[in-house]
Amino acid sequence: MPRVLVVGGGYAGFYAAWHLERRLRPGEAEVVVVDPRPYMTYQPFLPEVVAGSVEARHAAVSLRRHLRRSTVVAGSVVAIDHASRTATVRPVEGEDHPLRYDVLVVTAGAVTRTLPIPGLAEEAIGLKHVEEAVAIRDRLLVAFDRASVLPPGPARQKLLTVTVVGGGFTGVEGFGELLSLATALLPSYPELTRDDLHFHLVEGSGRILPEVSTRPGRWVLRSLERRGGRVHLDTFLQSVEDGHVVLSTGEEFDSGLVVWTAGNGANPVVARHTDLPVDERGRVVVRADLRVGTPDQPVLDAWAAGDDAAVPDLTAGTPGALTVPNAQHAVRQGRLLARNIVATLRGRATRDYVHHDLGTVATLGLGRGVFESGPVVLRGFPAWLAHRGYHVLAVPTWERKVRVLAVWLPALLFGRDIVSLQSVQHPRDAFVSGGVPGAHR
Ligand SMILES: Cc1cc2nc3c(=O)[nH]c(=O)nc-3n(C[C@H](O)[C@H](O)[C@H](O)COP(=O)(O)OP(=O)(O)OC[C@H]3O[C@@H](n4cnc5c(N)ncnc54)[C@H](O)[C@@H]3O)c2cc1C
């Protein structure tokens, strides 16, 4: 029986495996999914995980629960030698080993792009994974507790200064949700006031949220500033050593929390450790039907989709245009990829990927958002409702939808949870210290 190896069970990989399971006849092919995480991350929920509006576990869609007919391997693919149809798997436990396959699906996504900025690696945190969203939230909550027992001054100010670098989708959503969380915390901290909060969004270009057109983009900027955020356009982070932020404008301040969301970088395995064709940005070159290769030189038995693939955008009308890296495309590409693999196994023709962009919907904090689809623009509460409605429908499986809704509904009545569980990082402290206060601070 041919083996289909899916490298990465994120958006595109999860949907590809899920749809292969549905389409394949018993005994037609086996599906193996390799991913170091036992779940697909529903990344659009991460800003709401930061804010405490979505339970962290609910942004994680279990591979084993939902891919019941696939074999799930907990590990990373560290090299692909497609000529010999062999991938090298590094399991989360144990030695590297070869895995033979007949058909390859590369859906390993992208990584957060970083730059050699002094202090960045030590101080900053990304916003692409569940653990990062949880840590960001916990750090803000802990900062409030610590600041509440300090007198006004530099130490307190640093704790309550948040810097988000990158004004794209992830940065703006993360910034809006963090601002929303911080503002919502204030009534519970009478020691602190709105003036104690300092929120900086740093963007290298002249505008934020390029995913929407200029007017709604300007509205988002004004709306964040009205809520007390400072947006630094045409500005770069120069250094962040010991939490001391230095901007290219010369402005400097201390910041207790620095979130880095300045773009996607190529997945290193895809970019450097395969014999597949990759473009100058480290993405697998695919044809319009998602088969790896070019129209004249297809690579047999290899397919790719999602953020790690350079997929021709046939709707753009411009030769060489590629689909943008987002969930909207990754899901649809994953599904089509499954269809095309099954068609190929049965000797039938493949279909090209054609998807007209549905628009953009972003959360900017509880009750606030922006939505744009063609000429239709919504702002504020209606856009936020559209965001929630869209994502609760889009998160895969009914089980996840119900769980997410089950958190949203009581939150309407009781508000969000505002305790940090950062102490789970040191679960033995109370046991080891025998209750001596501050022994393991
Ligand atoms: C905070 C945030 C909010 C977003 N919001 C939106 C939104 O509202 N709308 C939208 O359209 N898009 C949104 N996006 C973008 C969207 O989530 C991505 O475009 C999408 O996840 C890409 O899917 P993918 O399958 O290519 O990669 P991913 O979903 O990132 O999946 C890649 C998978 O591959 C695994 N992997 C990586 N390397 C290896 C390896 N070597 N071996 C095996 N497995 C590997 C990873 O663990 C991961 O599970 C958002 C992104 C972020 C970070």
Termini separation: 57 Å
Major sheet summary line? 8 strands, mixed
Proportion in β-strands: 15-25%
Q: Average pLDDT across residues? A: 95
State the shape. globular
Radius of gyration: 23 Å
Secondary-structure-derived class:
alpha/beta
Portion of residues in helices? 25-40%
Helical stretch tally: 13
Query: Which molecules are bound in this entry?
Result: flavin-adenine dinucleotide
List unreliable stretches of 5+ residues: none
E-strand count = 25
Biggest sheet strand line-up: 7-6-5-2-1-8-21-20
Question: In short, what is this structure?
Answer:
Helices cover 32% and strands 24% of the residues.
Fold and architecture overview:
- With 441 residues, the protein is α/β, with parallel strands linked by helices.
- Helices cover 32% and strands 24% of the residues.
- The chain has helices at 11-23, 46-51, 63-66, 120-123, 130-148, 154-159, 169-185, 214-226, 268-272, 327-345, 381-394, 398-414, 429-433, and strands at residues 3-7, 30-35, 39-41, 60-62, 71-81, 86-91, 97-100, 103-106, 111-112, 124-125, 161-165, 198-202, 229-232, 237-239, 244-247, 252-254, 257-260, 264-265, 284-285, 291-293, 298-304, 309-310, 360-365, 368-373, 376-379.
- It has an 8-stranded mixed sheet with strand order 7-6-5-2-1-8-21-20, covered by helices on one side. A 5-stranded parallel sheet has the order 10-17-11-12-13.
- A hairpin with a 2-residue loop joins strand 23 and strand 24.
- Helix 1 (11-23) packs parallel to helix 10 (327-345).
- The longest helix is centred in the first third of the chain and has 19 residues, at 130-148.
- The mean pLDDT is 95.
- The structure holds flavin-adenine dinucleotide.
- Flavin-adenine dinucleotide (FAD) is lined by residues 7-13, 34-37, 43-44, 46-47, 76-77, 107-109, 127-128, 169-170, 267, 269, 306-308, 325-328, 330.
